[in-house]
Amino acid sequence: MSERNKIILEAAMSMFARYGVNKTTMADIATEAGVARQTVYNAYQNKDDLLRAVVRAKSLESEAAVLAAWEGSREFEDKLDAFFELGPLSWYDSIQQAPDTAELIEGVHRIACGEMDEAAERWRGYFETEIARHFDGAALDIPALADFIHSTAGNAKIGAASRAELEARLACLKASLLALLAPAAR
Fold it and tell me: Which pLDDT tens digit goes with each residue over 71-97?
C-alpha cells in the first residue's frame, strides 16, 4: 500500500470516528489527509469503498499484532489474553472514542460486513490451529469451539457499559474455556 493510501485511510478512520459514517464526506477525508478530493476518488471509488478499506486494514493490523504476540506465547491461556487485549478490548477502546458509537457501529456493520466476515473466518482458522496445537481434538468440535471463542469475544462488547465490564466478561469467557478444555490438555 502506498504512503498516500495509508494517509487517506488514517484520515478516513479519524473522520468516521469524529462524524460517523453517514455525516463524513469524501471532502472531509481529503481535507484531513491534506490531499485533493480527486486524489481520494482516484484511490477509492466512493465512501463505502473507503470504509471497507479501513475495516480491512484495521482487521489485518489487529491480526498481525495478535499473531506477533502469539509467537512469544506457549500457553493457550496467554494467547487468549493477547487476543482479548489486542482484539476486543482494543476495538472497544477505539469505538468508545467516537461521539456517536451507535451510528459508527451501524455504519460499519451495514457497509463493511463482508470484510468483517472475512476477518472472522481468518480468526476462526487461527483459533482452530491453536486449539489443535494445545488440546486433544478427538474430544472437541474444534471448528465450533473456534467460532464460539471469536464470536463470544466479539459479542462481549455489545452493551458493555465500561471497559471494566468488558474485561469481566472476557475473564469469564477465559475461565469457562480453560475449564472446558482442561480435560483435553496435552
Answer: 989 999 999 999 999 999 999 998 888
